[in-house]
């Protein structure tokens, strides 16, 4: 997306959700959890005004098909129920992807780990493009571990995925928090004049946080929102399935399923509940299609107060029968701390 040069912003490609994030420490080596002190660092606040809020979103019709031919005048946006003026608009059909793949390897999914690994590999082969899209692998059981840092080599990712084994509890929320903070907040950017990218997490899990994590569900969602990350979740639970005829039908969402749905909804992603490996192909195709069928708009918020509060965003289409899927909002920058004496 092309943005005008603003006098108050001297850093290109910087959008609001990242303003509250600090400069990231050097990435930890694979299979190491980021040091605890890195997670406790104070979040700093930029000292220049915020000029743009940028939102990537998808539009579906009543048949749940993506609509890709809309224009700026087909949308209205409000922040905290106050109408905003759209200043930038584009169809983001081919943005480079920065993908975090989070693989649940806890003991609770031991009998479904093969399913998870095949799901992960299928997704990467369906979505990633060499030298344009980059992904990393994190596993989580008792604690999250970075197994493979950002790479565009699907073969390399496949090799490390196939080596994973199950055991331990489930630190799901920590995995989301750490991935958003320590990888997707500052991923490798494309070369050239346009640094725009699409940040996503794909979480393959039963949705149960059994450790529990050091971070809460709300904290994990907040960090994803601050880093402008959309979370796509794929449930490995089949407890709620009933096979009638040739097609499985769901009759109940587990608590873990509800968690996965909430995380996806709050971050502008999507939750999937496949039953068989054969059913995954359509789920992955849907994720890939959505990532290539999105819009982006930006506006100058009428509320410029750096109060650190969460502000809701609501995008509506002026055309009837259309549903807009976007993140629920963003966090304003925190007020600057008083200068130390």
Taking pLDDT < 50 over at least 5 consecutive residues as the criterion, the unreliable ranges are 1-49
Number of domains: 2
What is the terminal separation in angstroms? 43 Å
Overall average pLDDT: 81
Give the beta-strand count: 16
Largest sheet: 6 strands, mixed
Shape: globular
| Oligomeric description of these chains | single chain
Q: Tell me the β content.
A: 25-35%
Q: Approximately how much helix is present in the residues?
A: 10-25%
Question: Which structural class is indicated by helix and strand composition?
Answer: alpha/beta
List the helices and strands and how they pair.
Blueprint: H1 36-39, E1 53-60, E2 75-79, E3 82-84, E4 86-92, E5 97-104, H2 113-127, E6 134-140, E7 144-151, H3 154-162, H4 172-184, E8 198-205, H5 217-226, E9 229-235, E10 241-244, E11 247-250, H6 255-267, E12 270-272, H7 277-291, E13 294-299, E14 310-317, E15 323-325, E16 329-331
Parallel strand pairs: 5-6, 5-8, 8-9, 9-12
Antiparallel strand pairs: 1-13, 1-15, 2-3, 2-14, 4-13, 6-7, 10-11, 14-16
Tags for this model:
27% strand; six-stranded mixed sheet; 341 residues; globular; Rossmann fold; alpha/beta
Explain this structure to me?
There is one protein chain. The protein is built from 7 helices and 16 strands. 23% of the residues lie in helices and 27% in strands. Helix 2 packs parallel to helix 7. The model is unreliable at 1-49 (pLDDT under 50). It is an alpha/beta fold. Strand 8, helix 5 and strand 9 (229-235) form a beta-alpha-beta unit. It has a 6-stranded mixed β-sheet with strand order 7-6-5-8-9-12, sandwiched between helices. Strands 4-13-1-15 form a 4-stranded antiparallel β-sheet, with no helix packed on it. The protein folds into 2 domains: 49-92 and 305-341, no CATH class; 97-291, 3-Layer(aba) Sandwich (Rossmann fold), CATH 3.40.50.410. The radius of gyration is 20 Å and the shape is globular.
